[in-house]
Amino acid sequence: MILTGDEDAFRQLYRRHTPRLYLFVLRFLGGAEMDAEDVVQEVWLQAVRRLDGFRWEARLETWLTAIGLNVARDHLRKRYRRGETLALDVTNLPVPDQPVAERIDLDTAIATLPDGYRTVLVLHDIEGFKHREIAEALGISPGTSKSQLSGARRVLRRLLSSVEEENHATY
Amino acid sequence: MLPTDPDQLSPAEREALDGLPREREPSAMLEERTVRALRNEGLFRPVRRGGINPHAPFGWLAAGIAAALVLFASGVVVGQWMGARSTVQAIVAVEEANAREVAALVQQTGSQYAAALAALTQVPSSESDSNWVAQGREVALTALYTVADQMVQVAPDDPLVARILQVMEGEQRPPGEGSGTAVRQVVWF
Question: What is the ipTM of this complex?
Fold first, then answer.
């Protein structure tokens, strides 16, 4: 539909795919909402520019995620170059349909992970990427991906257990 | 919640991760912002050609440079290539496009870019043309920076590309900014 160059067609496509893309990018960037919106806009710009490169046997959602991954990674890299620290805003993290304290804590905990840990964990444990795919996408070795994931899970467990301890202490 | 093997997820952990939401609506402003950006890039309508006097040598030269640079700056050219075609042509192009064509297009526009710059250096220096030459240089530099920025995405591990971009960003950075180095917690960014 977008091939018609029609604005309405684009808007339909945008509304269909953006919510998933946005949450993926938001998690990847650790809950920085403004940055996530900038990245999503850039993803759509790149997607429309590169439409001829899209292989129609693939799912558009997968293709958009791949572009989103590159743009978000580039965004993180620029942030490092500028020497900026992550402005984490955990209030921007998504709330599940059925609010469960443990789930909110899980997303918050993921957001507080170091960038390298978080990105691998989001890709592997939430998005279902294989280590080989993560390695290819991030320009790292599969071994590095595995060790980052292991470290991420270790830190995540520690964060969550401390939250559970706090809850127990409260009650 | 801890599994026997610390590198594996326990069923409870797997369930918790699977239970995370997969979608979230961004702000309504983002859609308008994105559409406006696409409109500004001319991606919703055909790009018009013409309007340049072929008998004016420098006009032709400037147009050639501009065309080559616009193609480069659009991220290996594809965007403008798509924007310049009608709907039917675009569909055909999308179906027929392959990596070889895109690579050939990169080569072709790269040659045009180099040829246009070579021509720019041959322009006889005269007072009336100096502003045009300066503009040509400025556009060429901007495109060079844009291309280097794109190349980081095309070849993120290429040390030469990274160095070029680093140098160019250093040149563009306001004095006093970015002199500090962030403490990095991971090795691959």
Answer: 0.80
